[in-house]
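Thread: Newbie trying to understand structure tokens

Hi all, I'm a second-year student working on a class project, and my supervisor (Dr. K.) asked me to get a predicted structure for one chain before our next meeting. I've only ever worked with sequences, so writing a 3D structure as a token string is new to me. If someone could post the tokens and maybe explain what I'm looking at, I'd be very grateful. Here's the chain:
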Amino acid sequence: MTEQGHRLQCAGMNAGKLLVAGALLVSAGCVTDPGDLGAVSGTSGGGTDGQEGPTSADTSAGETGQPDTTLDPAGSSSSGGGEESSTGATVVPDCELDVGEGSVRAMTGRQFEHAVQDVFGVEVEVEFEGGGPFGGRPTISPEEQAEIDVAAGVAAATFDVPLCGGDPMACAQSFIDEYAPLALRGQADHDALLDTYDAAASHDAGIRAVVAALISDPAFADVSATGELVDGVLQLDGVSVATRLALLMWNSVPDAALLDAAESLLEDGGIEAELPRLFADPRYARAQADLYALMTDVERLGELDRSDVDASWSEGMASSMVEEQRRFIEALSSDPDATLSDLLTSGSTFVNAELAALYGDDLQTPPPAGDAWGPAELDPQRRGGILTQLGFIARHSNNVSTDGYQPPTNRGVGLGRMFACLPVPPPPDDVGPPLADVVDRESWQEGVEEPAKCAGCHSITDPPGHAFGNYDGLGRWFESGDALDAVSAVLDLEFEDAVDLSAQLSEHEQVRTCMATRHIEFALRRYTEARDECTIEAMVDAFDASGGNLRALVEATATAESFVLARP
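---
Reply by user tm_fold:
Sure, no problem. This is what the structure looks like when written as tokens:
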């Protein structure tokens, strides 16, 4: 096991449940020591942050009959202290204060795309590798820089050059003064940019050359933390805090107003004062949709091919499922009163005609016509929240006949890993081929109970997965002949089906803790460690006090002590 793996923790998992999970894994031979649970935390190796490539092979398609649990975290280690923060508050000893190893932090692919769109108003596509869903990216590789250069050319060619009614050089200077601070956040060489403009054959060509230069500049994709080093801890400067806040709230870069407020963010109440405007901006809902895409791994549906088991499957169907979840999250995030219960139990969603047909009798409102999307209400006895939407279920299904038995493991892994931070190890190296003769729950149980090395792991992953037995491989409802009820020893839950499970999870301590974990990981782009426990506990306290309000959790993330600190 790597040192990196040892450092991972299922942050905030209470000791009793962790001991139960440890006992199951150790007795099963999945790990040899309960301390090794750090290597099998609730993190995911599949990259779904837009263009972040997966770091493990997708085995949910049934190639091995085992869940996609390979981890490639970017965790790191550093020590806390008793230092004072930039706000004067004493940092609790043993709390994690940094953003991981190294001081250079690069944008994810999705963040880069958003930044280009937000600054220059044009759309580009890039594919950045590595980092995993919540892991950081230490730098931009030469291959990625080459791709950035291509994207910069595309953006420059499609950029809408402002009209110049006077001296072209003065217009160029004005353009650079406006756009360079947004693109490079204080690192621009204005004279060099003006030279770039002046070397072009025309005003329009010069402005486009400046746009390409700004996007290609390494500083554009560099979101490194800068500030004052005090007792080995970096207290972030105003621009770094503004950048980190924009990445959390918009998954993008600061706008002019946030950069203007940068120094005030270092004052008591400074971040809180900016949050109402950031919440009200449509980019907040966009960023939340990005976050939950990471948590459900739904965007990897586009990499799967289920056409061999269901002729109706298509890339367009996969895209529609991804879009459904995005619209659901964006609508939820636009409601300041939305709660964790709404996320996990709401029967409201959005569909097009294709998804309406898949939902079938579950749809309780008229389907939209043509290619349109529209709001929809689903049968509350069959659907409730994000976990029972088509995308999550289809993403974590096996590539088996849609009218056949769906083994529970992939669905249990997807739910437990990303929403409950349950420790899920990769399958043993010597695991056998998939069970070809599985036709029902009973035969599945018989197959995974022997050998013993399989039983312990499946005791963690399978109970939540059994709750989804009434959904086929595309997420459609069908009447299963198998009993759906199950008991999860790790979560201390008994549930009848997926709707019941989702409702209980919406009130579960471990889920609230995991939600806090995912939010701070999203904010800092690093996997959490044991030393983050106090930060997460404070976030959970604020989340609980708000009645599970989702915006309160985001605010608790932005105002956490570690949010304005880093270790170089």
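A couple of things are worth pointing out once you decode it. The CA atoms of residues 298 and 411 lie 12 Å apart. Residues 315-333 form the longest helix (19 residues). Feel free to ask follow-ups in this thread.
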